[in-house]
Write a structure and sequence with these properties.
alpha+beta; FAD/NAD(P)-binding domain; eight-stranded mixed beta sheet; seven-stranded mixed beta sheet; 13 helices; 18 strands; globular; binds adenosine-5-diphosphoribose; binds P-hydroxybenzoic acid
Amino acid sequence: MNHHTQVGIIGAGPAGLLLAQLLYQQGIESVVLESRSRERVESRQRAGLLEQGTVDRLRQAGAADRLDREGLVHEGVILSYNGQRHRINLTELTGGSCVTIYAQTEVVKDLIRLRVETGNPVLFEAQATAIKAITSSTPMIQYTHNGEEHFLTCDFLAGCDGFHGISRQFIPESLTTVYDKVYPYSWLGILANVPPSTHELIYAYHDRGFALHSMRSPEISRLYVQCDVTDTLADWPDERIWAELQIRLGTTGWTLQEGPVLEKTITPMRSFVSEPMQYGRLFLAGDSAHIVPPTGAKGLNMAVADTGQLFDALVRWYQDGSTTDLDNYTACCMRRVWRVQEFSNFMTEMLHHNRDKSSFDQHLQESRFNQLITSRAASTLLAENYVGMAAKRASEVLS
Ligand code: APR
Ligand code: PHB
């Protein structure tokens, strides 16, 4: 079958779904192609910390009703060093900003429900296999659905197909630069059926490795421990996970409540940027162009920021034919992407134990941590990056 739409979107993660919804509200038609089933997309456990700018975009998209009811607003975050805790007062240090805990899975469910309700369903189990005529005014996506081959022509293509998608490969290699860093540790994450033992997130450096106490709701905890890159889930029975969490997060006079583990996954840690994010009429957004280690909780927030930027530029083109914002897309995104890369790398290097580091570098790491908790200037910098102000400022320089 051959069909046409204004914006062809590959991928129904947060980037693709949000773009479709924002465009729909402006009367711009799109088709979203997703290789997985709806059940699979709605059940993937990802991070769950939303910056204010992300919450604002979801509100703009009319997708924040449940988020506004159920999201947990946090005005501070706790850093721990071998059991010694220090609270960073995000709201005070940033002149009023905060973050909201609400799972990415729930954001995705909300966006899919909206799409279905507005009569524009996502094409699930529709796998994009090629992108063609990218530099023409009618680029095309070739995809398979229900065992048949289809061709979707569009005005613009949005590659929102994540790190393992196909879109990035269609930007000529001769024009592309890739920046990549792989970290020598992974995260083992659990979802546990137990109320969180803390009101605010705890990021812990420990000589045995990093740990993080996060949450999903007043009933469900989300916790992570640093593990070796070669570890498998078989190496981590529940008792071992809880024992490590108790030690790494522990402090005098506080107990971590344990409960049934609902889910366990191991995630490798990587920083990756592919530049440019646009070629002809193809625009990449989110993980298809860049990924960060999860320590700064930035993956989803960057995907939403790219999407907002792309949406604004497309609206401008449809309203008055101006290509200025489309032409500036890579440059504006890159300012933000590198700010976020630097922050995610900083948080990762400061909070993990790397036994291959020299003792000199381990002392530097400890000193960096001490500066962070003793200097208001250093705490302010962390807070501005954590709530998303620093990244917003970086991207505004060019706009
Ligand atoms: N055809 C159709 N869909 C595809 C294809 C393809 N060839 N390849 C990948 N996809 C789909 C994936 O199945 C996935 O649902 O694209 C979607 C990409 O979604 P995400 O990986 O969630 O990426 P993005 O929307 O950029 O969101 C980034 O997700 O991975 C987390 O930490 C990351 O929080 C960040 C966020
Ligand atoms: C999460 O809740 O999953 C989460 C929170 C903060 C992070 C990473 C993950 O830095």
